[in-house]
Amino acid sequence: MKVSLSEIWPFIEIVGAEKIQQIDLVLGSQELTDVSQNVIREIKSGDEFDTELLPDLFTNSEIAWQPNEYASHKDCHAGINILKHQCEVQRQAFESVDSEISKFYSVFDQKP
Which residue from 53, 69, 70, 110 has the highest number of Cβ atoms inside 10 Å of its Cβ? Predict the structure, then answer.
């Protein structure tokens, strides 16, 4: 059954967490399989939610933090490359922590 990301938590509550052993997430061509419902519930609780992730990636590194108008799409390549590097640094940081949540954050492959 397919549900949107925002519907996962209500779905778990309606169906009952004990009936759901795993969840498969799909984002474009990327797939994350066998995610335990405990991981999904922990993410919702916020205890393991990295509130500084998006500010670190965008605002603090000044990528896409304000509207910019470029004459050509080629003009934004430098910012995109910086963002790619920042994402890789964050992914590696999550990989170095031994927890299910960190693995969840770092699992998506960077290749299409």
Answer: 53
DSSP string, 28-45: TTEEEEEEEHHHHHHHHH
* Domain locations along the chain: 1-49, 50-112
- At residue 37, the pLDDT reads 75
Look up residue 70 and give its two tokens.
Answer: 């470029």
Residue 19 confidence (pLDDT): 77
109 pLDDT higher than 60: no
Model confidence pTM above 0.85: no
Q: Are 101 and 39 in contact (CB under 8 A)?
A: yes
- Cβ(42)–Cβ(27) below 8 Å: no
Residue 18: the pLDDT is 74
Count the helices and strands in the chain (H runs, E runs). Answer: 5, 2
Q: Report the distance separating Cα 14 and Cα 59, nearest Å.
A: 37
Residue 94's nearest CA partner among 103, 86, 85 is 103
Q: How far is CA 52 from CA 41, 47, 58, 60, in A?
A: 20, 13, 10, 10
